[in-house]
Write a structure and sequence with these properties.
It contains 10 helices and 15 strands. The strands form 3 sheets. Strands 3, 6, 7, 10, 11, 12, 14 and 15 form an 8-stranded mixed beta sheet that branches. The chain has a 5-stranded mixed beta sheet with strand order 5-4-13-8-9. A two-stranded antiparallel ribbon has the order 1-2. The chain is globular. With 335 residues, it is an alpha+beta fold. The protein has one domain: Oxidoreductase, molybdopterin-binding domain (Sulfite Oxidase, Chain A, domain 2, Alpha-Beta Complex). The termini are far apart. Helix content is 16%, strand content 22%. The chain binds the ligand Nc1nc2c(c(=O)[nH]1)N[C@H]1C(S)=C(S)[C@@H](COP(=O)(O)O)O[C@H]1N2 and molybdenum atom. Pfam families: Oxidored_molyb (PF00174).
């Protein structure tokens, strides 16, 4: 077994248990002994090497095994350069843990993500509360490298590990009345300082939604990992949505509820500022945010001297795969 705590370290000395600080030496050894890592599975994901200062998030044993068996999806992956690990895991929007980009990493480290359950409800033949471990039984994980375009006009290229949302939704057998899917994030002010703040902008819990055909689209992913390991809490562990052709706020984190509905759900940002954020939130360079342009974006890493501003693509570059979903719709009206 490769990733093991040294037996002389009590679990209580490691907070939280799921985090492991990799030594550079260890990684070097790993690279040299690559065959060991693959344990006979030639096609498994190669592990990303991390710097000494970076923290690897391992998650529970059962998840580690699944992550190690993940395969890279070339069909669904971009070959653009990845955002550095410290950007993906250190520059986040997760208002439950604060409004600043470095708040989620600072305040989410003790967030408890195992055990975790998800309640399935609404227009569905198999409602119930399911343990995440059971949800993932029989599911093959894959790595998909997607662009993530935040509505704030920055973007990153991120190697997620997950599985298509469609495969999960089908297992619960939605009824003929199910036209939308609504997702809910955990509401737990004890663990989430942003939910205790009196200056809250959002009516907790955070809610998002998709039309059924969007939810069933093969690009729509449920992620449980990133950069080959488990999701860090700041990225929405243990289970988050990734909808790459929509603004980042649609990609709801730390999901505890999936509800099938007949009516279009009202998502958190739409409820908060309906003039600025709609239900669809498809990435669209020709419909500006009322307070800023959406025609370009800052591709991270970006700095004062090297801002790396690029043109924003319709549907974040996924138009050939998803534009059909919206044929005949006025995308200025349905922003
Ligand atoms: N529950 C919840 N989900 C959320 C958010 C949030 O504040 N709360 N922020 C969203 C926004 S605005 C973006 S851009 C992405 C950021 O995901 P990342 O931090 O993993 O890159 O998460 C989205 N999901
Ligand atoms: Mo965002």
């Amino acid at each position: 077994m490769l990733i093991r705590k040294a037996p002389d370290i009590a679990p209580s000395e490691i907070t939280p248990e799921s985090i492991y600080r990799q030594r550079r030496q260890f990684m070097k050894g790993l690279a040299a002994g690559g065959a060991l890592l693959m344990s006979g599975q030639a096609s498994a994901l190669a592990r990303y090497a991390l710097d000494e200062e970076q923290v690897r998030y391992l998650g529970p044993d059962w998840l580690q095994q699944k992550l190690r068996a993940a395969q890279k999806s070339s069909v669904f992956s971009t070959d653009e350069p990845l955002a550095p690990y410290e950007h993906v895991t250190g520059y986040n929007n997760f208002y439950e843990f604060g409004l600043g980009k470095d708040d989620p990493k600072a305040y989410a480290q003790n967030f408890k993500t195992d055990p975790w359950s998800v309640e399935i409800s609404g227009e569905v033949h198999k409602p119930g509360t399911y343990q995440l471990e059971d949800i993932l039984k029989g599911v093959d994980l894959e790595e998909r490298i997607y662009r993530l375009r935040c509505v704030e006009a920055w973007s990153m290229v991120i190697p997620w590990v997950g599985f298509p949302l469609a495969s999960l939704l089908k297992r619960f057998e939605p009824t003929g009345n199910a036209r939308y899917v609504e997702f809910t994030t955990l509401h737990d002010p004890k663990q989430m300082p942003g939910q205790r703040s009196r200056f809250g902008t959002i009516d907790w819990p955070y809610v998002e939604g998709l039309r059924m055909d969007e939810a069933m689209h093969p690009l729509t992913l449920l992620a449980v990992g990133v950069y080959g390991d488990a999701l860090p809490p700041q990225n929405g562990a243990p289970l988050r949505l990734v909808v790459p052709w929509k603004y980042g706020f649609k990609s709801i984190k730390s999901i505890v509820g999936i509800r099938f509905t007949e009516q279009m759900p009202v998502n958190s940002w739409q409820r908060t500022a309906p003039r600025e954020y709609g239900f669809y939130a498809n990435v669209n360079p020709s419909v500006n945010h009322p307070r800023w342009s959406q025609s370009t974006e800052r591709r991270l890493p970006s700095s004062l001297f090297s801002p790396n501003i690029i043109d924003t693509q319709p549907f974040n570059g996924y138009a050939d795969q998803v534009a059909d979903l919206y044929s005949g719709m006025d995308l200025r009206k349905w922003y």
